[in-house]
Design a protein that fits this description.
It is built from 2 helices and 2 strands, in the order H-E-E-H. It is of the alpha+beta class. It has a domain of 37 residues. Helix 1 crosses helix 2. It is globular, with a radius of gyration of 11 Å.
Length: 53
């Protein structure tokens, strides 16, 4: 579900749910991605995606 988490982070960023400063641009798997730096958001998304599988 790693890709699912990255997709959720992208939605949160693009919809402006969290401030732009909460995200860091990184390159993973040869693709540019946005990852949140907020541990609470990481935990929430991890919990959410684990329930989907």
């Amino acid at each position: 579900m790693l890709i699912g988490r990255k997709f959720c982070f992208s939605i949160l960023y693009n919809r402006g749910v969290y401030p732009e400063e909460s995200f860091a641009r990184v390159k993973k798997y040869g693709l540019p991605m946005l990852l949140t730096q907020d541990e609470g958001v990481k935990s929430f998304i991890s919990n959410l995606t684990s329930q989907l599988s």
